[in-house]
Write a structure and sequence with these properties.
10 helices, alpha+beta, single chain, five-stranded antiparallel sheet, about 400 residues, four-stranded antiparallel sheet, Beta-lactamase
Length: about 400
């Protein structure tokens, strides 16, 4: 008959307290760089977000519904990239350019175009590059019709993706960014979309750093002027209509830290670039991002009742990234708790606790702790002994 030894409750509490005490980062005096106000600009709305942590570093009217113009194409690209990942679409697959795509988005429309020819067949990759680099409305509509059958059906798909990504102030009426009474987004929602695009499709994000693209003997430069001004900038998308003004979703990476900036409603293409550049520089100058824990770090090993194993290793549900004022990393503190008592069976990935990170004043990260491995039920003797122990708690 198994004779499983159980430590006393007092001893278990002592071990847990000792482990937790060792886990807490020691308090040290430190002097973070003072963080001034964000630089002034003429944008109607803007937001600056750290890519890894998601922390908002600067914002103005970030949740206000605004016309996104051609920044809309980020969602068309997201849906297309997802189709590529799921093998519902291939880069070499040819797409028929309809008269609607040609007429609505072609050169005769007066908008941005890839100069596609009606009834021609064009590879998917050409449409993607035309949409991203040249902001071609014709290429965008052709993609939308390929994936949705009609643009109207594709727009329904776009709105469903927006809902899944948590874009609460967004509704699309078309795939390419034409103005409409029910076509709107917000700086924060577009930053959320940009972050998802980079996170979920890193291999396809490379298209956004292309400086120019040629199709049908028409060579056109990328409208994102920051690509030429700042080598750390590698995307993302411009937008402009008369009613929307000039907007830009941009991203840059310096020394392993990536920031995403969205400005909407500026007075000109130079103004949107200047505002974006100033905000990006502000973020990199006054903030830093660090990885506090990884998904493989064992944070706690609490006792398990009625299980084959006496303890279960708890790890963060995801890597924990934290953005703080530059010089503030030494002041970070972590604490962890578990939801006890823990009774087997325990499934792998089951949420059993929480880890919290503070900067000495505010909570800057809160992440679930999950079981690193499953713990099946133990034998009848273990279950009986632990049942009595639970009853006596």
């Amino acid at each position: 008959m198994p004779n499983r030894h159980k430590p006393s409750r007092a001893f278990s509490f002592f071990v847990f307290s000792a482990c937790l005490g060792a886990f807490l980062l020691a308090s040290v005096s430190f002097a973070a760089v003072p963080v001034p106000k964000p630089p002034a600009n003429d944008a109607r709305a803007y937001v600056l977000v750290d890519f890894q942590s998601g922390r908002v570093l600067a914002a103005h009217q970030a949740d206000v519904q605004s016309e996104p113009a051609s920044i809309t194409k980020l969602m068309t690209a997201y849906v297309a990239f997802d189709a590529l990942r799921e093998k519902r679409l291939t880069l070499n697959e040819e797409v028929l350019v309809s008269e609607y795509a040609w007429r609505t988005g072609g050169a005769a429309s007066g908008g941005s175009t890839t100069f596609l020819e009606v009834n021609s067949r064009v590879p998917v990759e050409v449409l993607i590059r035309g949409m991203i680099v040249q902001s071609g409305n014709d290429a965008t509509i052709a993609l939308a019709e390929k994936l949705g059958g009609t643009e109207d059906s594709f727009v329904q798909i776009m709105n469903e993706y927006a809902r899944r990504l948590g874009m609460k102030n967004t509704n699309f009426e078309n795939s390419w960014g034409g103005p409409g009474p029910r076509h709107y987004s917000s700086a924060m929602d577009l930053a959320t979309l940009s972050r998802a695009l980079i996170r979920d499709f890193p291999d396809h994000y490379r298209y956004y750093s292309e400086r120019d693209f040629t199709w049908n003997k028409h060579k056109q430069a990328n409208r994102n002027g920051l690509l030429a001004r700042d080598p750390s900038v590698d995307g993302i998308k411009t937008g402009h209509t008369q009613s929307a003004g000039y907007g830009l979703a941009s991203s840059a990476q310096r020394n392993g830290m990536r920031l995403i900036c969205v400005v909407l409603g500026t007075g000109g293409f130079k103004a949107r670039e200047d505002a974006s550049a100033a905000l990006l520089n502000y973020g990199f100058t006054f903030f830093e991002t660090t990885k506090v824990r990884t998904v493989s770090d064992v944070v706690l090993k609490p006792e398990v009742y009625k299980g084959e194993e006496e303890m279960v290793a708890l790890v963060p549900a995801r890597d924990i990234w934290v953005t703080v004022g530059r010089g503030g990393v030494p002041g970070l503190k972590t604490s962890a708790t578990f939801n006890g008592p823990i009774v087997a069976p325990v499934t792998r990935g089951q949420t059993l606790g929480e880890i919290t990170v503070t900067d000495g004043k505010d909570v800057v990260a809160r992440v679930p702790l999950v079981a690193q491995a499953a713990v099946p039920e133990g034998g009848w003797w273990t279950r009986m002994v632990d049942g009595i122990a639970l009853w006596m708690e």
